[in-house]
Amino acid sequence: MLHSVKAVTHRLARQYTAKANRSILSQDIKKIKNYEPKISGTHANRVYVWGFQETGALGLQTNVKKAQERYTEMVHHPTRLQFSNNNEITDVTAGYGFTAYAVKRSDGETLFGSGLNTDSQLGFQVKGNSKDPANLDVIIYPTAIKLPREQGETDEDMQVRSMSSGRAHLVVVTQNGTVFTMGNNSYGQCGRSIIEDERYTASALINRIPQADICGAEDEIVAVECGQDHSLFLTKLGRVYSCGWGADGQTGQGNYHTAGQITLIAGDIEKERIVRVACSSDCVLALNEQGDIFGWGNSEYGQLDDSVDAETQICTPRALTLTKGIGKVKDVAAGGSFCMALNDQGLVYTWGYGILGFGPTVEQSSKPQHLLPPLFGRNDFSNATTVISIGCGVFHMGAVNSDGDLFMWGKNRFGHLGLGHKKDQFFPFKAAINGKVTKVAYGVDHTIALCRPHI
Q1: pLDDT tens digits, residue range 346-400?
Q2: Hey, which residues does 284 pair with through a beta bridge?
Q3: What residue spans do the RCC repeats cover (predicted)?
Q4: pLDDT tens-digit profile of 161-188?
Q5: Rounded to two decimals, what is the model's pTM?
């Protein structure tokens, strides 16, 4: 009896051939639901913001009354900027309490800003009421910054090629090579003559400089980098020009004076092709195409020279010896009292003074030390993950890996690490951002990330 049951079961199991089974199953394909994920926003880029909001730098508020309420003071988690849902944002920069956005729009506007405007660093902005044309010192939502055009200039000419912001000034380079500077010029950081007792509040002055006046007709400006109160211009041929405050030697012009004239700087970079310049305060790092690091400016914490009798202010660019052993460098960043470097193996190095990423007991290192790859997402399941870019503000640092994840560490008084709290972070920690990070703008108390969707 047992044998016959087995035989029946066997016959039932072999009722169809494998080919017939596949044929029957394929008849039900039409019943399978085709899931199409809903994509919010059709633009290629999206923007996430976090940190101190009271200045309006995050551009999240649309209501003045709400913006003044106490609970809106800080945003502790990366929050998607509504403005980026409606506009194609191509670049971002974060100053001291303000943010600028490069955009592509059908109406021809190419530059927007939000945040502090006490020195007209976001242009001349007035209230919408014509009977009350008072200047706006704080802009809570991204607003167009009108760049003065010459006859015949097109919308494409005015697209932003590069931009950067300092403590209270903004520098923009457009596609046709024009440099626009606005905001505070007390130290010549806007590349024009210093006017004694000049009033910057409610100023409609946006300085316009043709790139040929800076680097000649045979070269072009490809990037601009602002420190606290000075500006640096990098050209296609690898030359560096500067203007602004030079008390710590940060202009690299061989002196400690202020300079309203944009001037070519030399020193050890004179015959080098520089491909990257980095500065968030008053210490400057530059990188040549061979991966060697140069520096000038403030070196009070041994950022540029770790020798016993080292100078604390360096006014001429010099090749750094303390970074010679870290391999070929492909990215650099300079904070208020620390520096960062990324080599071609994907290793992140930090040195100087501050929260360097090695834990709460390490606050100073005179030599570059590398942070372990697992801190940036490398593990047994993702052993190809590596860091591809680095950056920092005055008090905090960040690194983006090949998966598009952002890791942050440093001071966190204003929640600008985006980790959900105000505690200082002593090791790199991943920020929760719903997108692949392509660029990060590090302000003094807020952070902006430009991202692409995961799908």
Answers
A1: 999 999 999 999 999 999 999 999 999 999 999 888 888 999 999 999 999 999 9
A2: 296
A3: 45-105, 109-176, 177-237, 238-290, 291-345, 346-403, 404-453
A4: 999 999 999 999 999 999 999 999 999 9
A5: 0.88
Distant-in-sequence, close-in-space partners of 146: CB < 8 Å, separation ≥ 6 = 123, 124, 206
The whole-number pLDDT of residue 135 equals 66
End-to-end CA gap in the chain: 59
| Residue 6: DSSP 8-state | H
Coil, strand or helix: which one is 198?
A: coil
Q: Do residues 55 and 443 make contact, with C-beta atoms less than 8 angstroms apart?
A: no
Secondary structure of 109-158 as H, E, C letters: CCEEEEEECCCCCCCCCECCCCCCCCECCEEEEEEECCCCCCCCCCCCCC
Q: How many helices (H) and strands (E) does the chain have?
A: 5, 28
- The one-letter amino acid code at 68 reads Q
Residues of the chain with pLDDT under 70: 1-43, 62-72, 128-135, 455
Long-range pairs for 354-360: beta carbons < 8 A, 24 or more residues apart? 354/301, 354/395, 354/410, 354/411, 355/396, 355/397, 355/409, 355/410, 355/411, 355/424, 355/425, 355/426, 357/397, 357/409, 357/426, 357/427, 357/428, 358/426, 358/427, 359/426, 359/427, 360/426
Amino acid (one-letter) located at 294: F
List of domains in the chain: 49-452 (2.130.10.30)
User: Do residues 77 and 49 make contact, with C-beta atoms less than 8 angstroms apart?
Assistant: no
- Is residue 392 within 8 A of residue 280, CB to CB? The reply is yes
